[in-house]
Amino acid sequence: MALNRETSGGRWRIRPDGPAKVTGALTYLTDMSMSGMLHGRVLRSSHPYARIKSIDTSEAEALEGVHAVLTWRDVPGLNGYGIAVQDQPVLCRDYVRYVGDAVATVAADTPELADYALSLIEVDYDALAPVDDPEAALADGAPKLHPHGNVLHRAGYERGNIADGFEGCAHIVEETYITPRQMHAYMETEGGLFVPEPDGRLTVYAPTQHGLMDRLQLSRILDRPQASIRIVSSPIGGSFGGKDELNIQPYGALLALHTGRPVKIHNSRWESVRAGLKRHPMKIRMKTGIDADGRIMAHDVNIIADTGPYATLGAEVLNFAVEHVIGPYRYEHLYVSGVSVHTNNGMSGEFRGFGGNQAIFALEGQMDRLAYKAGIDPWEFRQRNRRRAEDPGPFGHPIAQTNGAEQVWRTLAESALYARRERLAYAASAPSSPPWIRKGIGAAFVMHGAGLGFGIPDPAGGRLRLAADGKIEALFGYEEFGQGLIATLELMLIEEFGFAPDDFRIVIGDTDRVPDSGSTTASRATSMMWQSLQRMRDPFRSALLKAAAAQLDRPAEELAIGEGGVREKSGEKRLLLAYQNLAAGSSEEIAVETNFIFPASDTKRIGAHLLYTYAAVAVEAEVNTLTGRVRVTDQFHAVAAGPVMNPQGYLGQIEGGSSMALGYALTEEAIMDEGRYVTRNFDTYLIPTIADSRGGFEVVPIEELPEGDPHGPRGVGEIGSVGLAPAIAEAVFQAVGTRISRLPIDPSELQKPTDALRKAVKDR
Amino acid sequence: MPNTHPGMSVMPTVWRPQEIGEAYRMKQSLGETAVYAAGGTLLRTQWEAGTAVLPAHLIDLSAVPMLAGYALEPSELVIGACCPLAALRKDPLVQTAFPLLAEAVRNIAAPSIRNLATLGGNVVSRIGDSLPALLADEAELIWLGKNGMQAEPLEDWLAASGSEQAGRVLVQIRVQHGTESVNGAGTMNDIRSAPLLKVDSDRSASVRIYHKVGRREAFTPSVGSLAISAGMEHAAGKLKEVRIAAGGGQTIPKRLERTERLLERHADPLGEDCAAEVHRSAMDEFEPVGDLFASRGYRKMTVANLLVAELWRLRERFA
């Protein structure tokens, strides 16, 4: 059944953070200010690649109203950061390796003065020819950007014997897929307020996806204990992976501690584009062979990822891509090799889909090309080759088994949209449609891992307590950046415990108050909140009832938790003790906490996942051959992710993810020229508008899980963003017969000159 | 505590003249240090991008009565240079009588920007998407300069090299009434949705068509824009008074005069052979500027294709 407002009934709730966000009333962290605060600015590199000969800050320092001009000399601790590897300099000393590299940072009375001070800093550079292409970076004799060279990470996987695999294949498809550098395009650019407290601590009000990781990273840079730093990190005006890594935090923190005054930093869009993370551009070569029955015999893949100058999560993204170019299919022989390469282009890093978007665009492109060559319906082709229940994961590793692959395949096959595919040939010549409009329908099949994967620290946990004012507090170390996590937790508390919305309070995004729930990333938060609540539900309920029993002098067995307080378990379920009174009458705090590790596969393969979400997506697209422009006119998404925890949030994630994928497929590319951004603002970097997002949109969630499944809801934060592009590419092929191997789709490849139009006119 | 230092860029001084002569005199006395501003939407993007420096003085024209609003007079539409795009877009009379302009304005930028951005600003940018529509309607510009008010055909001004008479200011854009016609624009995606032309009698009709092709469906720079105005005698199957103008992106829009003449002189302008000739002619005559997002060749082809497609739609209508 389609998921929408009507079918959700009472579970379709206005999210608690919704009204303030929609009306603009909400104070985001980057809206905060304090009297007496200074304004921070960062001097970024003038060159994509250069040796720094000297830095002279004397003129800037001499300006009245300028309170700090800091360089690498002023970093007390580790002059480096990175979630996985701390190789990105906070402030560069000897080399700059991309245009976003920071060389100095300034605090001044006004933003204009800080800007002016930056202009007075003299950096003497020895400009070097930038390495702007990953293949050139791998060539012999290429300049080494780091002492270890230009390879950040290699990953691969092998099964069978690939050379033998292609022998005797009935059909072989070879293609090179090229995917763009995509920008997160969050509405709120990076920024925050940094406040030195009277007690010597530092409070950081700055968005991030993992407050405790920021605290750890800042403690290393500042050379001070983690306990002396408090990170307040929600609410956030969008992130999509882009704010998981540190951005402006080191500069705000250094300036605030150096001056002893509050410092505000807020990136302009221009600076955000220049310094911020993007999705890894990848070049994926695939050679895939099938036998006469259309079964995949051999699949040979090579991935080259442009990871930019520093590590952040580049290695992990490559691991994920290697896993997902294998995906939900069976192969006789398999060989995957991948390399993540340093260049002087912009920083690549974490982004919704995490390497899956690139991998699945290529993999599904192969499936469609092979099906066409073999004369098999593309969806039937997937059915022949897809994984079966109880098959191991892509790396041959154990996974939590569900029927998701089969369920989404069947649901899409039975959808009204896909059924139109057969009739489309006739519809194209209907008189309502001019001859230059061609329609096609395409589909893609997706298996996407959730959680960080084996071998990467993946803590989880939460806390429930009855606060002194009688509110039940649910404390989690998660962040709300628009995904609807607060609303989801609210609905879980109502449904799992029977609380009324007014009975509780949700506390997130403050390292002084919350337990370590891990990073809000990798489609893991909903899953982990649910698992935490499963662990805490009975102990917390028992603790509440035990305290209530003592106060009421009645056996706990006669009592139940409900709206407003403790109630009679049977009969009219009369309210016996309000939570407020329970709190007031309890001498000890009633609280439970859980800490555990996100379930991982029993394997030795780094990054391999245990939990997967499956999806099948079909789109109808039309190509205007006059202009070559593509419009998506209808979408169908079947998603198998276990029970729907929050209907509005679930639908929002699929719609929002799909909208990002639409931009990925049609318009979005952060173009670089010799290491410099050409698209430096949203007037040239084009994300979809509401006018681009018209047409039907149906989501069918498949909630059924196998009997006894202990893992509950799977994540849906990324799955909507990975399958759409290959489905559009196939729809375009069906419409005009042109194969798309590069994103975003270039309209000039689909434009037909006048002869074609004349012919089309004649044929009518 | 000083907030400024010598050498530090400062916000411009904003002057707010109350009448047009005052604005002109301010510019004369401030010279190169001053820039006229209307909605400021384009200037702002140029300052941010570093393609124009923040001037010392801004002469804000928004309070000058003569530049405000528009008037539908018996023989023409007179539009003050500071008339916001949104005002023209919403008026049903403008939509009916000047469909090219209304459609062009409908596709410029986004709602919040159209409330600020002015037609005058779009015109003096020399690349605005209103220009092909105004060219096809043979609009006239009224300037205030050293010799007082002067009229100049838009086409002549665009064709001139661009060296502006020092400090003259655009006052009005004037468009003559043609035969009443019906908007012929549309998405080109559904043949039924676009009323092509106004049939004035059973003998003649007028055609008004505007297209903008961008890189996305809305709020986009154009890669191609095309305006067509023509009269049609459908009994004879002939086209007359054909005006075709094309632009897009950084291209200064121009009339495609050879293609216009070809259509006017052709015995069977809606025929298949003519369509091929028109396509060739437009490809040859239109000289767009390419960039990283859309090549010159793509832009040419887009405009030529749209033109031929519109001829095809006319033929369908009269076949």
Automatic annotation (TrEMBL), chain A:
<dbReference type="Pfam" id="PF20256">
    <property type="entry name" value="MoCoBD_2"/>
</dbReference>
<protein>
    <submittedName>
        <fullName>Xanthine dehydrogenase D subunit</fullName>
    </submittedName>
</protein>
<dbReference type="InterPro" id="IPR036856">
    <property type="entry name" value="Ald_Oxase/Xan_DH_a/b_sf"/>
</dbReference>
<dbReference type="Pfam" id="PF02738">
    <property type="entry name" value="MoCoBD_1"/>
</dbReference>
<dbReference type="InterPro" id="IPR046867">
    <property type="entry name" value="AldOxase/xan_DH_MoCoBD2"/>
</dbReference>
<dbReference type="InterPro" id="IPR037165">
    <property type="entry name" value="AldOxase/xan_DH_Mopterin-bd_sf"/>
</dbReference>
<dbReference type="GO" id="GO:0016491">
    <property type="term" value="F:oxidoreductase activity"/>
</dbReference>
<dbReference type="InterPro" id="IPR000674">
    <property type="entry name" value="Ald_Oxase/Xan_DH_a/b"/>
</dbReference>
<dbReference type="GO" id="GO:0005506">
    <property type="term" value="F:iron ion binding"/>
</dbReference>
<feature type="domain" description="Aldehyde oxidase/xanthine dehydrogenase a/b hammerhead">
    <location>
        <begin position="23"/>
        <end position="129"/>
    </location>
</feature>
<dbReference type="InterPro" id="IPR017609">
    <property type="entry name" value="Xanthine_dehydrogenase_dsu"/>
</dbReference>
<dbReference type="Pfam" id="PF01315">
    <property type="entry name" value="Ald_Xan_dh_C"/>
</dbReference>
<dbReference type="InterPro" id="IPR016208">
    <property type="entry name" value="Ald_Oxase/xanthine_DH-like"/>
</dbReference>
<dbReference type="InterPro" id="IPR008274">
    <property type="entry name" value="AldOxase/xan_DH_MoCoBD1"/>
</dbReference>
TrEMBL record, chain B:
<dbReference type="InterPro" id="IPR016166">
    <property type="entry name" value="FAD-bd_PCMH"/>
</dbReference>
<dbReference type="InterPro" id="IPR036318">
    <property type="entry name" value="FAD-bd_PCMH-like_sf"/>
</dbReference>
<dbReference type="Pfam" id="PF00941">
    <property type="entry name" value="FAD_binding_5"/>
</dbReference>
<dbReference type="InterPro" id="IPR005107">
    <property type="entry name" value="CO_DH_flav_C"/>
</dbReference>
<dbReference type="InterPro" id="IPR002346">
    <property type="entry name" value="Mopterin_DH_FAD-bd"/>
</dbReference>
<keyword id="KW-0560">Oxidoreductase</keyword>
<protein>
    <submittedName>
        <fullName>Carbon-monoxide dehydrogenase medium subunit</fullName>
    </submittedName>
</protein>
<feature type="domain" description="FAD-binding PCMH-type">
    <location>
        <begin position="7"/>
        <end position="180"/>
    </location>
</feature>
<dbReference type="GO" id="GO:0016491">
    <property type="term" value="F:oxidoreductase activity"/>
</dbReference>
<dbReference type="InterPro" id="IPR051312">
    <property type="entry name" value="Diverse_Substr_Oxidored"/>
</dbReference>
<keyword id="KW-0285">Flavoprotein</keyword>
<dbReference type="InterPro" id="IPR016169">
    <property type="entry name" value="FAD-bd_PCMH_sub2"/>
</dbReference>
<keyword id="KW-0274">FAD</keyword>
<dbReference type="Pfam" id="PF03450">
    <property type="entry name" value="CO_deh_flav_C"/>
</dbReference>
<dbReference type="GO" id="GO:0071949">
    <property type="term" value="F:FAD binding"/>
</dbReference>
<dbReference type="InterPro" id="IPR036683">
    <property type="entry name" value="CO_DH_flav_C_dom_sf"/>
</dbReference>
